[in-house]
């Protein structure tokens, strides 16, 4: 039997509380839950213009332009789109944008080219320092990494 103290704790913290139905539950119960997949990325069930930003290389402005070109309401949820609308979005992205793997490889090749020609920016990339003229005496922790302890000057 459950002790009275344990029962009070479970009621207090809501351990047996009712959970809300999610889209996954609806799919199990006969609904048509699916996650849209564009450019190899599973997009969440949010507004179209927000969901498209989950794709590497598509910003909010790009997402709004895609919605404009495909004549899709940006406030529509991703799961409410039919296959024709998803196909239209895929076509626009494939034709006009470099996304995901293609974009990542292009950026990596650009950085490698800068390093190979030995220019200032390439040297900064190689050393792991800020490239665009930021100060490094203080700050620049994101690029330089965690602080390295240096022995103090002896008296």
Automatic annotation (TrEMBL):
Annotated signal peptide: none
Which GO molecular-function terms appear in the entry? rRNA binding; structural constituent of ribosome; tRNA binding
UniProt keyword Cytoplasm, yes or no: no
Give me the Gene Ontology terms describing cellular component: cytosol; small ribosomal subunit
Q: Where is this region: Disordered?
A: 125-155
- State any GO BP term from the record: translation
Q: Please provide the record's keywords in A-Z order.
A: Ribonucleoprotein, Ribosomal protein, RNA-binding, rRNA-binding, tRNA-binding
Question: Could you confirm whether the keyword Ribonucleoprotein appears in this record?
Answer: yes
Which Pfam families does its entry note?
Answer: Ribosomal_S13
**What PROSITE patterns does this protein's entry cite?**
RIBOSOMAL_S13_1 (PS00646), RIBOSOMAL_S13_2 (PS50159)
Which protein family is named in the record?
A: Belongs to the universal ribosomal protein uS13 family.
| Subunit structure comment from the entry | Part of the 30S ribosomal subunit. Forms a loose heterodimer with protein S19. Forms two bridges to the 50S subunit in the 70S ribosome.
Q: Which PANTHER family match?
A: 30S RIBOSOMAL PROTEIN S13/40S RIBOSOMAL PROTEIN S18 (PTHR10871), SMALL RIBOSOMAL SUBUNIT PROTEIN US13M (PTHR10871:SF1)
Q: What is this protein's function per UniProt?
A: Located at the top of the head of the 30S subunit, it contacts several helices of the 16S rRNA. In the 70S ribosome it contacts the 23S rRNA (bridge B1a) and protein L5 of the 50S subunit (bridge B1b), connecting the 2 subunits; these bridges are implicated in subunit movement. Contacts the tRNAs in the A and P-sites.
- The name on file for this protein is Small ribosomal subunit protein uS13
Q: Which gene encodes it?
A: rpsM
